[in-house]
Amino acid sequence: MTSSARSLPALLTSGIVAVALAGCASPAPADDAEGLSVVASTNVYGDIAQSLAGDLATVTSIIESAAIDPHSYEASAQDQLAIANADIVIENGGGYDPFVDVLVDGSGSSAIVISAVEASGLLEEDHAEEAHGDEDHAEEEHAGEDHSDDHAGDDHADDHADDHGHIEGLNEHVWYDVHSIAHVAEAITEALVETDADNAASYESNLAAFLTDLESLEADMEALAGFLGGGTVAATEPVPVYLLAELGFEDGTPEEFSEAIEEGADVPPLALQQTLDLIDSGDVRLLAYNEQTESPETQRVRDAAEAAGIAVVSFVETLPEGEDYVSWMRANVEAVESALTAA
């Protein structure tokens, strides 16, 4: 999740890119490739971009396989060359895939860079809620005081971003928020039109079709939320929490547990015990399990959930083979429904 588990190999230096590419399994997009060149950090955004661009662009996804753990991904010289040749680059942002920014800077790329976190609107919502809370706190405890020296105008993202760009309090897995991904699609379409205005009508038509599919999925999710009746869920990581929230559920996972798993760190014994206690409490309806960051601690939580008869649904961070974005999200929703309604 965060960049602490990622590193960039020395072969990214420009002086040996050409030599390193000789050993790559597949070539990066050529400079003279027909149509636009779009590079996405993962195949989730690559698939969305392809849906919007159609055959007017060549889309390259840096991380394509669900067998690859995005937490420990090491970018290659091939990745840097792809970025260097790109017209549009799509990253998740929020500290999830900081290797993209390093590649953009290292290649001298002039591509339009789209951050899904920024385009989603979730960052603004998070900070608006925080600002509202700060105002309430100020009114209650500091009414009438002179705060002329306070830095009321400080940017929240700067204040709460760590050294790796991870934003405190933000769940950066925005692709699991079906509603917000519509804004990401709109940002990608805007970049396509800006880069290739002659085909604007095609891009906008593709966007309309994509949004229609999203709206249908959202309507089904809203109906299912009413049927399932909500409740508490637990998750080994906050990857699918947006999706579960749209289905009416509340994440009860101890924050220290999910943060440790997300950062690839040792889980504090107290946090593990609190999570196991939550599982044993009888309040949890479902455990969301991230297969791409499995560890002894997550396996222990899963074993406890299965022993307690709690439904376990597996989620991954990259697009499974044979799925597109909408069909994948629908499959996740159906998996939740099936797990909770099984006899």
Automatic annotation (TrEMBL):
PROSITE patterns in alphabetical order: PROKAR_LIPOPROTEIN (PS51257)
| GO molecular function terms noted in the UniProt entry | metal ion binding
Q: Which residues form the signal peptide?
A: 1-30
User: InterPro entries given for it?
Assistant: Bact_metal-bind_prot9 (IPR050492), ZnuA-like (IPR006127)
The record's GO CC annotations read: cell envelope
Q: Which GO terms describe its biological process?
A: metal ion transport
Tell me the compartments it is located in: Cell envelope
Tell me the superkingdom of the source. Answer: Bacteria
Q: Where is this region: Disordered?
A: 128-165
Mostly located where? other
Q: Where is the composition biased (Basic and acidic residues)?
A: 129-165
Q: What keywords is this UniProt entry annotated with?
A: Metal-binding, Signal, Transport
Q: What is this protein called?
A: Zinc ABC transporter solute-binding protein
The species this protein belongs to is Microcella pacifica
Q: What is the lineage of its organism?
A: Bacteria, Bacillati, Actinomycetota, Actinomycetes, Micrococcales
